[in-house]
Amino acid sequence: MKQIKRVFLSLLILLMAGLPLLADENVNETKQGAIRGRIVDNTQQTLPGATVYIESLHTGAISDVNGFYTLANLAAGTYRVKVSYVGYSPAEFTITVPEGKTVERDVTLNEGIELQEVVVGGAFTGQRRALSSQKNAMGISNVVSADQVGKFPDSNIGDALKRISGINVQYDQGEARFGQVRGTSADLSSVTINGNRIPSAEGDTRNVQLDLIPADMVQTIEVSKVVTADMDGDAIGGSINLITKNTPYRRIFNATAGSGYNAVSKKAQVNLGLTYGDRFLNDKLGLMISGSYQYAPGGSDNAEFEYDVDDDQVVLKEAQVRQYYVTRERQSYSLALDYEFNADHKISFKGMYNRRNDWENRYRAVYKDLDESDPAEQSIELQTKGGANDTKNARLERQQTMDFTLDGEHNLGGRVLMDWAASYSRASEDRPNERYFGLKMDNNTGSNLLSTFHGVGGRTPYSTLAIPALSDEAWELDELTNSDQSIYENEWKFRLNFELPLAKGLFGNTLRFGGKYTNKTKDRETEWYKYDEAFDDNDAWRNNGAAQIRSGFMVGDFYPEGTQFVSKEYLGGINFGSMEGEPDNEEMSGNYHANEQITSAYLRFDQKLGRKLNLMLGLRMEHTALDYRGLNWVVDEEEEESLAPTGNRKNNYTNWLPSVLLKYDVNDDFKLRASFTETLSRPKYAALIPSVNYNSADEEATIGNPDLKPTTSYNFDLSAEYYFKSIGLVSLGFFYKSVNDVIVDEAWQGMAPEIPISGTYEYDITKPINAYDANLYGIEAAYQRDFSFIAPALKCLGFYGNYTYTANKTKNHHFEHRVLEEGEEIDMIGSPEHTANASLFFEKWGFNLRLSYNFASAFVDEMGEVAQLDRYYDKVNYLDLNATYTFGKRFKTTIYADVTNLLNQPLRYYQGTKDRTMQVEYYGARFNAGIKVSF
User: Fold this and answer.
1) How do the residues of the chain divide into helix, strand and coil, expressed in percent and rounded to 5?
2) How much is the pTM?
3) Residue 898: is its pLDDT beyond 70?
4) Triad 861, 435, 171: Cα angle to 5°
5) 851 burial via Cβ count (<10 Å: 0-12, 13-18, 19+)
């Protein structure tokens, strides 16, 4: 790979040295002009991805995500310009460009007669914008427009992403939370809003919580599977860019109101949305405001099991039964402004704020230490999780993200295009007054609790032992805690880009260059106190029980339905201010401060090689400077605790990221692409903390690793796409990734040099390491089209489907303790072998019916001490049904209804083998209905 880099750098230097020869001979003789404008359809909706072309010069431009285009570096004269777009009749116009001036010309396209007969109202009408952008992109990408998202029953962006080829999602509380691209874990891809990487609201990861953002707040979703030099390089799997609603071409107003129902909570939901946009001051000022509100009471039925290895035998160590009730409130607001000073200078502002409140109550029954041979060492525990009275007696988790960007676009003398941006982003998670009330009953029966279990090692082990009521004197208070937790990440970003058209014609070229600076800080602050020794209510808790583990518990009816737990109201009413708590140093040892500064610069050179072939060469440099500090937690053999600062640990590294992209237009509808790129992924924040937390009494330790290297990847891609005249496409792609220094949390029993004690001990230790390199291969196929090619009468039926196959092989293993058995193969973390989507739908007379299926195979999610303890995320099968009816022209009204998770697909993890359940959680089907109005 180093030889490839040398060849690439040599080629780039030669091309740069030859730029004066490639430039127009008369470029300095006259002042250059430009043509600028916006492409819209006959309903005044903007059209991204339109081709704007001057045949006489063999030069052109592609309209951006908001429909704007610029043809720069034009000599004074009169030109014939052609505009084309998937599903629309081409438009041509003649325009005169004065010397040194920029001329504005907006273009309105009309649907072609052939398409009006075959497609209008057909299955892929709303996907034209996405297909045009995808068709004209230099790299391999997938684009989904807002109107296409609206045809699926997806409440958040994560659920919408799972419809895209090569993307798998992981779930939390029945909603998609993290996205995985092309068989890579969520850590190896980036999520951006309008091109800005957004911070994470969680403490130990860079992953962005996709369930924070409602699907109806986004104008377009772009998934770039091949990144170019002008994009951030931290995208091994790909880059997911969420484009928010931009200022409109004309006045618009949209409103949504709906409700729904969930089988667990049995309560109604609320869904509201509002969008307004217009232009003012003779169209110089544009405004778009949008808001979304969702209130969804829900919950889940859960069982979890922990296994261990003893004398090469897998044994059940712990079993849990959990009942969750979660009310999720999601709010999102966005504002877009732009002001055009003149045809050459424009500034804009985009802001987005997202907030998700989760009020959660959890009731948990635990069967502890089942692997102990002495029954007296075993116990049963009951735990209530809640919050204070002012948070509905529930644990409130408030996650927030915001991104505000001021940017400008400038045409400098008709020859150089410049854009700049300054932005601020913030993500936070707050958990005020999170409370736990735990009871414990020792096993004094003389019989092993494990003997009461059926199905151990299977999918749903359960105990036949009845759990006594709270009035039983054997119950004792074991846990009472109250905590305040706060995680926040702040980012400031500044960028400056230049675009210099050098030559026109069949061998025209353009140079782009620029830089970016990012300064980010992340902090975790937790205050956690224990009150079990200070609390004394004369056992009043025994009279404040609530029956939980509901009837109809979806894991199985053999679990302890109706078990009594301390009620959430009782827990919420406890006055902790009247007691003196003991600090829980173990929980607070996770506090840290991190600062990361990334300085980047790039060169990108685009070269036309005739009418059909385009070449892009790029080189990006990213320098990362780190400064981290945390806490060391120590518990000695006498169980004396202490917390001590780690001090600051600094590090830095530089990555040079080359890219070569080729695009060959066999014809206007058939595109071939090939590329080589290098990308990276930085380690998780929590993994870099220079801390050593160990408990000598329990012989447990967690060790940070500030010396972790970033994961890097060499990426090779080939693809072929054919776009149908009647809107649709068929595509086939192959990709290969050579991934280096993959980061894994290694777990082992024994000792580590970081633990400052001597002697022979069997600590349970975890530590993140650069564990291995991997080769990742994949094939992608996609097909979408209505059935009018069979018979015109079938234009109302359509099919959308895609499939991705991935295979991986790890090598150069660097485990410090895990010993691989002869012939044992380690799978790459987070890499499902198969992902597939299929959607069959009917659309006619304003009625749309869509049945959608989503599948992903199982994959390794976390490595254990041995292969039998590796954790797998199980395969999923999702089936959703969505129906809408739209009527009206000036006041367009849509009535919608959808049912999601018809198969009641649970979230499931297993350990070692697919039948050994580690966690299973059911959510039930969900129903939503409502009305949308736009004019």
Assistant:
1) 10, 55, 30
2) 0.90
3) yes
4) 25
5) middle
